[in-house]
Amino acid sequence: MALEDGFVEYLVKKKTSTKEIMIRVLCNVFIVCVIIGVPVFIAPGLAPVSLFVGVVLWLIYHNFILPLTDIEYEYSYCDKEISVDKIMGKEKRKNLATYQLEKMELLAPSNSYRLADYKNLKTVSYWSEDDSDDHVPYALIYDNKEKVLLDLNGEFVKIVQNNAPRKVYTD
């Protein structure tokens, strides 16, 4: 396989928001209160029932709520396509989008002056939301219809640039 036809994957964890952390904490506190609080403070005879309800609540939390608050994005490049997958709770994978290099207009850092003509496009975000000063996502302008925010590393950008040199900028 030639360098131009390369394959690369990159995995990035989405920053957990304060809201998501609070949801996790409140769910865990509620489950512990049901399991321990009901038999100790309300009705000692309901210990088996509260244990059963607590286990059911924990299963609901573990299978539905936790995956929605623990998200990673996997970007892969193969055969002139950029694919974006969402991994929820390190277990469930969902393909979000696939972008053809032929339809890509531009790939540049989101603070680049080259994006000035594309301000009114629909924006889709698949980046980690890391808002530190030195961290800037890349913007992919696709088919002149949408602007896609991606959290790419240098190796990934380089391989895309090798395949579409006039469409990729690193300024």
Structure in words:
The structure is a single chain. The chain is α+β, with helices and mostly antiparallel strands and 171 residues long. The protein has 2 domains: 3-14 and 72-163; 18-69. The protein is 34% helix and 30% strand. The strands form 2 sheets. Strands 1-2-3-4 form a 4-stranded antiparallel sheet. Strands 5-7-8-6 form a 4-stranded mixed sheet, with no helix packed on it. Helix 1 (18-42) runs antiparallel to helix 2 (47-69). The chain is elongated, with a radius of gyration of 22 Å. The model has no long low-confidence stretch (mean pLDDT 89).
Itemize the secondary structure elements and their pairings.
Elements: E1 8-13, H1 18-42, H2 47-69, E2 71-78, E3 81-88, E4 92-100, E5 104-109, E6 122-126, E7 138-142, E8 146-150, H3 154-163
Parallel strand pairs: 6-8
Antiparallel strand pairs: 1-2, 2-3, 3-4, 5-7, 7-8
Helix pairs in contact: 1-2
Radius of gyration: 22 Å
- Low-confidence runs: none
Tell me about the biggest sheet?
4 strands, antiparallel
| SS element count, helices | 3
Protein structure class: alpha+beta
Task: Report the count of strand segments.
Answer: 8
Shape: elongated
Distance between the termini: 29 Å
**Spatial order of strands in the largest sheet:** 1-2-3-4
- Could you tell me the strand content as a percent range? 25-35%
Spell out the helices and strands N to C: EHHEEEEEEEH
How many individual domains? Answer: 2
Mean pLDDT: 89
Helix content: 25-40%
